[in-house]
Specification:
91 residues; mainly alpha; 80% helix; 0% strand; rod-shaped
Amino acid sequence: MNISNILERNENINAKIGQINFEIKQIKETLKIEKCEFSDLKELLVKTEFYKNILFNPASHNSEEIEIYRKECINSIKLLEKLNQVLSTLK
């Protein structure tokens, strides 16, 4: 809601202040949620970069039969699925 609209209404000053405070709290909450979503995205991107560097380094892995390499592949797939979910919400 536009603050100018609140101020122009025929209500007492306390009601106007209450409404403005409510609107400010709503804005803060929205920004907090967006900040969390973007910090989650940043964390996902960092993890994706980490796993990309591991998986695309053939010198460190030469067989998917090795347990550690298999786990890294599985973790990478899960991470990419989560990243895809986050990116689809941004569209």
